[in-house]
């Protein structure tokens, strides 16, 4: 599958399957990981996670907003990513990526991001992507800087966790910058 659009050097993107529920449920138990990716939510039952995964599996996106599973080329589920605020008229979109803790710093997030950017920039004609990163998430800050994203802004005191407020950084990458960074 060397020429498969949704495959990179380390991972491939695919729809979330109902059978993925257990990995996502285990990941929900990692409060620190949840804090870095989004927020810590109320506990969810196994049945609730099964229903969520089944709903994701049945969800046929009618827009460019999508949630995808990230799996290694060997088929191991290692995380997820989603797009949001997709605006075809302006050619802009946002995304978020979450890698399960046991797979952090393995190059999976950067590979998944490049797969997504390749599709949105080269197939859908988008021209700009934005990622919001919590200031305390040093790994995500380094990831985006390493991929050539430019910090375009700082929203002060936007995230409340661990008993205090933190800033949120806004990183952006244009299609031209993407073209300069890709091989």
Automatic annotation (TrEMBL):
SUPFAM superfamilies according to UniProt: Acyl-CoA N-acyltransferases (Nat) (SSF55729)
Domain of life: Bacteria
Residues making up the signal peptide according to the UniProt record: none
Domain N-acetyltransferase residues, every copy: 11-167
GO molecular function: acyltransferase activity, transferring groups other than amino-acyl groups
InterPro entries (alphabetical): Acyl_CoA_acyltransferase (IPR016181), GNAT_dom (IPR000182)
Xref: PROSITE patterns: GNAT
Alphabetical keyword list: Transferase
Name used for this protein in its record: GNAT family N-acetyltransferase
The organism of origin for this protein: Paenibacillus silvestris
Taxonomic classification: Bacteria, Bacillati, Bacillota, Bacilli, Bacillales
């Amino acid at each position: 599958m060397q020429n498969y659009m949704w495959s990179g050097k380390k991972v491939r993107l695919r729809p979330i399957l109902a059978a993925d529920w257990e990995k996502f449920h285990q990941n929900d138990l990692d409060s620190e990981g949840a804090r870095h990716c989004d927020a810590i939510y109320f506990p969810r039952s196994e049945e609730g996670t099964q229903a969520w995964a089944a709903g994701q599996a049945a969800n046929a996106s009618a827009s460019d907003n999508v949630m995808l599973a990230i799996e290694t080329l060997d088929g191991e589920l290692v995380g997820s990513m989603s797009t949001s605020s997709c605006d075809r008229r302006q050619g802009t979109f946002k995304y978020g990526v979450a890698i399960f803790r046991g797979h952090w710093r393995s190059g999976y997030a950067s590979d998944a991001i490049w797969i997504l950017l390749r599709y949105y920039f080269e197939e859908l004609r988008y021209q700009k992507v934005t990622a919001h990163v919590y200031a305390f998430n040093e790994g995500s800050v380094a990831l985006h800087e390493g991929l050539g994203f430019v910090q375009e802004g700082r929203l002060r005191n936007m995230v409340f966790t661990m008993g205090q407020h933190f800033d949120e950084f806004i990183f952006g990458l244009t299609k031209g910058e993407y073209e300069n960074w890709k091989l």
